[in-house]
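Researcher: Let's try something more involved. This one mixes different molecule types, so please make sure each is placed in the same coordinate frame as the others.
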Amino acid sequence: MGELTLGVFSSLVGSMSLDFSFKIAEAAIAKGHKVNMWLSGNAVMMAKKGQKAFKDYSHNEKLMKELMGKGMEITVCEACAEARGYHKEDVPEGMKRASMDWYLAKTVKTDKLLHIGGE
Amino acid sequence: MKLAIFLSDWRRTEDSFERMKAEKMGVILVGNGVYHAVVKENGKDSPVLSKAGASFYVLSDDLTTRGYTAANVNSKVKVVSYGDIVDLIMNDYEKSAWI
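Model: All components are placed in one shared frame. Result:
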């Protein structure tokens, strides 16, 4: 089995590519692959505590936590978060914040990389 | 290089798309990119499907979300699941690009 790293730059609400990111991660984990996810740009808001689920919008928090329970590593771009007023104390348990160096290192070491752009 | 290209929009991205070359190329249509697999304009297929030598795939879930079924899909395009896309990324292509 291999290691797949997803670089996710999609915005939080109403973003189809953010939904895609979690569904492809779920499918990869189901096949036994190790999945890492880098949340950057507007995607960092995916990893903020206290989000409310609305009926008519997709809400990936539950799936995200399930996938973390299955070993998915999620790291949030520290500078992108701070720029949006999202601080260290807002990070849910089990997630890390790091500089872009983390993602760059993964792009070199991982077996496969999919960089999913924003909208 | 074996390259998988993800097209997620119906907007005209052919300029960058046309410049991409690979020894083996797969084009994976997701999100609004699925319209390239099902819509004809003036009776013609999407220009995306004329990429020489490429294999074309479309995500089943994103077709269904937009009211289409496999029966609506152009015969050049294979309907795939999320699991199939994982296999394409992990086994069939060396690099992936999202445009």
